[in-house]
């Protein structure tokens, strides 16, 4: 790849140079993009896969590495938006899938793997006494809200501005146009007085409070422990079902952030890596709530789905939790990730640039501000989209794959050389472009 131009005079020029080099470096991805657009709207079937001037087309992955069709190799710091905890080819995951497939799949009945995976999840996550499987975090959250409404007989859910709970539950930046038609009220994340006032005003109508204990897609913004505890106490007071969306954050400790913080919701939703990297979702919760899905009950809630207990996912999930991401590994991995994030923030402080990496453990995001970030509204600033684009293209050119918005999730196969290389590239970026903001 080409060497980035040095000391651009302004942001517009720097961005133009970066896009020019990106286009020159990736002719095959450029050629394929309009071909893909002929049959796929926007050239993809997942909106966030697009970034300007055109996305890379990935050919293969191994360990923590990705290769595009132009032959470039990247250290994968995106980790499939947190689903790729195990990397792209972990031998124990691959073996588990191969062994499961050897016995056939699509049984149309209960199988041994689903029982074991349910046991493992209930052992790990304090809120889970029983669990139901589905196929994505989106499904899990839709299932949770529907169940909460049915169980409480109430209509509304409290959500937080800027929150993302799946493709049909997005509460910021225009996501409302494709939002599932659940009646909601909203509050500002980490604004305790304002949130409590909203709850008191709408308590008689609130079936659920839905939130991530750390906002993921909104920028890896951690909730104050006092904020979460107050929600826990207020939900109990008013008979509201407190739902933690741990689709992303479940990887931040052996029992997710709920265990790490010691604040236990009534229900939890899961997805991503817990299926071993294959399609997966789950809803877990207290027995008296989850028992409503028992088909033997006259008042049973119906929940079906052809692939809820699909064999490859169940087998991969069991292998991941038993043989790879043990409790000890979860603790040490996230501790090392905390140290990496602090290393990056140290570079920003050393160079006196207005930038920071937020997050917990193996989930982190880069922001072009040095002010405290406690809610999505704190992230926005005038030049941030252009700066994020410049940073993204720069890191791709240096061989590091991440999201355009600055979001990263670390995977187990990443090595010291990957972390060192990323830190070096970030330092080079702030040295070259730190004067632009």
Give a written overview of the molecule.
Helix content is 39%, strand content 15%. The chain has helices spanning 11-25, 27-37, 91-102, 112-124, 137-152, 192-202, 225-238, 256-261, 287-290, 311-324, 327-350, 384-397, 416-433; strands spanning 58-62, 65-68, 73-76, 130-134, 156-160, 184-187, 206-211, 214-215, 221-222, 241-245, 267-271, 281-285, 356-360, 363-367, 400-401, 407-409. β2 and β3 (73-76) form a beta hairpin. With 437 residues, it is of the alpha/beta class. The chain is globular and about 70 Å long. The strands form four sheets. Strands 4-12-11-10-7-5-6 form a seven-stranded mixed beta sheet, sandwiched between helices. Strands 1-2-3-15 form a four-stranded mixed beta sheet. A three-stranded antiparallel beta sheet has the order 13-14-16, with helices on one face. The model has no long low-confidence stretch (mean pLDDT 95).
How would you sum up this structure in a few lines?
With 437 residues, this protein is of the alpha/beta class. It has helices at 11-25, 27-37, 91-102, 112-124, 137-152, 192-202, 225-238, 256-261, 287-290, 311-324, 327-350, 384-397, 416-433; strands at 58-62, 65-68, 73-76, 130-134, 156-160, 184-187, 206-211, 214-215, 221-222, 241-245, 267-271, 281-285, 356-360, 363-367, 400-401, 407-409.
């Amino acid at each position: 790849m080409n060497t980035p131009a040095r000391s651009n005079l302004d942001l517009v020029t720097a961005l133009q140079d970066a896009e020019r080099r990106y286009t020159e470096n990736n002719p095959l991805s450029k050629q394929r993009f309009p071909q893909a657009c002929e049959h796929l709207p926007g050239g993809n079937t997942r909106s966030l896969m697009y970034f300007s001037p055109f996305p890379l087309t990935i050919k293969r992955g191994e360990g923590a590495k990705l290769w595009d069709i132009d032959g470039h190799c990247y250290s994968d710091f995106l980790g499939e938006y947190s689903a790729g905890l195990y990397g792209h080819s972990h031998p124990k995951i691959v073996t588990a899938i191969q062994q499961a497939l050897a016995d056939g799949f699509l049984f149309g009945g209960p199988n041994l793997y689903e029982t074991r995976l349910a046991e493992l999840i209930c052992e790990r996550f304090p809120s889970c006494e029983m669990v139901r499987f589905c196929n994505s975090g989106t499904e899990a959250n839709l299932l949770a809200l529907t169940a909460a409404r049915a169980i409480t007989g109430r209509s509304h859910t409290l959500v937080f501005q800027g929150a993302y709970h799946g493709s049909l539950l997005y509460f910021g930046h225009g996501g409302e146009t494709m939002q599932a038609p659940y009646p909601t009220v909203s509050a500002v994340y980490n604004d305790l007085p304002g949130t409590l006032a909203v709850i008191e005003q709408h308590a008689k109508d609130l079936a659920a409070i839905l939130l991530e204990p750390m906002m993921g897609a909104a920028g890896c913004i951690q909730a104050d422990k006092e904020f979460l505890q107050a929600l826990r106490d207020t939900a109990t007071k008013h008979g509201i079902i407190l739902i933690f969306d741990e689709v992303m954050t479940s990887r931040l400790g052996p029992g997710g952030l709920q265990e790490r913080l010691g604040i236990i919701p009534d229900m939890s939703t899961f997805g991503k890596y817990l299926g071993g990297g294959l399609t997966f979702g789950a809803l877990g919760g207290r027995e008296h709530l989850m028992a409503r899905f028992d088909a033997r009950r006259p008042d049973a809630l119906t929940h079906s789905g052809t692939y809820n207990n699909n064999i490859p996912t169940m087998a991969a999930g069991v292998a991941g939790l038993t043989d790879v991401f043990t409790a000890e590994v979860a603790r040490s991995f996230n501790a090392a990730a905390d140290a990496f994030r602090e290393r990056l923030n140290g570079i920003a402080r050393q160079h006196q640039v207005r930038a920071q990496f937020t997050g917990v453990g193996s989930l982190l995001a880069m922001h072009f501000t040095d002010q405290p970030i406690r809610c999505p509204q704190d992230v926005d600033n005038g030049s941030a989209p252009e700066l994020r684009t410049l940073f993204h293209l720069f890191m791709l050119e240096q061989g590091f794959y991440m999201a355009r918005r600055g979001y990263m999730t670390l995977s187990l196969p990443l090595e010291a050389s990957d972390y060192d290389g990323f830190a070096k590239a970030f330092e080079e970026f702030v040295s070259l472009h730190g004067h632009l903001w």
